[in-house]
Amino acid sequence: MTTKSEGELSAAISNTVVRALARTTGRGPTKAKTTLGDNGVFVVLQDSLTRGERTLTDAGESAAVLDLRRRWQRVMEADVSREIEELTGRRVIGFMSDNHIDPDLAVEVFVLEPLPQEHAGPGGEGAGL
Question: CA angle, 102 as apex, 98 and 106 as ends, to 5°?
Answer without folding.
Answer: 25
